[in-house]
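Researcher: Going back to the complex we discussed earlier. I've cleaned up the inputs and rechecked each line, so this should be the final set. Can you rerun the prediction on the complete assembly and write out the structure?
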Amino acid sequence: MAAERQTKQKAIIYEALKTLDHPTATEVYGYVHERYPSVSRATVFRVLSGFSSSGRALEVRLAGSDMRYDYNVNEHYHVHCRCCGKIADVEVTIKTPATKTVSESCGYLIDGFAAEFFGICPACAENKSCC
Amino acid sequence: MAAERQTKQKAIIYEALKTLDHPTATEVYGYVHERYPSVSRATVFRVLSGFSSSGRALEVRLAGSDMRYDYNVNEHYHVHCRCCGKIADVEVTIKTPATKTVSESCGYLIDGFAAEFFGICPACAENKSCC
DNA sequence: CTGGGTGCAAACTCTTTGCATTCGG
DNA sequence: CCGAATGCAAAGAGTTTGCACCCAG
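Model: Rerun complete. Updated structure for the full complex:
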């Protein structure tokens, strides 16, 4: 009953997702709007939200920032540069913190975990002037 | 030159912070406004932001939620109930993930880490009807 | 054809800001 | 007294929604 339809807009938005680096919806809109001015903001939000529901993209909410979208749907974490704000993927396996300990501490049944790293990106480490 | 001044509003807002459970600014405003209708939204935001700058409270940005404030400024993490959304503190020491490995993976100089747990709170685990 | 998708604009929510007034120290 | 802190209202920024029109299948 719900055959997802393929549209130009979706293709462009997905392309923006791959081209831009963990963009916010507004950044995606900027990219898309430059190339196809007729695409509306609402569509960008609806399509991104749809991608996230269908597992084609991830919603990423990092500290001090709006919602961001990530086309990399594999399990991974993010590093956030304290200087320029650049976000990068971290493809490491984090040894899950002692779930049992956490569970005992708060009484919850733990079944998930999210992490975010902070640091200085290579560019900012070299170019001290930016900090 | 910048002697921080003690005001009724700050006292009430701090009380709200301790009474409410990781409230959003809007929730704090609700609590405060009930008791002192004259306090304005702007003041709540300004005071909370001030608390966070002065280290009297922490800003907590959890997945899928607005900014929340926490009067507990000790190092701790949060658990988020998938059912009711209730947030609890987790006072455990997480073995910091291999910083070296992370650093190698993305090239950043890692100097910080944030984590969030997901799960089911005791109340929801019992009362299955809520999920 | 048909209904899922889109554009537009208005509505909403959360947060910030300018400015005159208040009041803590 | 003096200037930090408030209240009010208006402005922003990001996101959602109602509705008529459009186009992929």
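Model: Worth noting: The longest strand of chain A covers residues 109-120.
Researcher: Good, that matches what I expected from the previous run.
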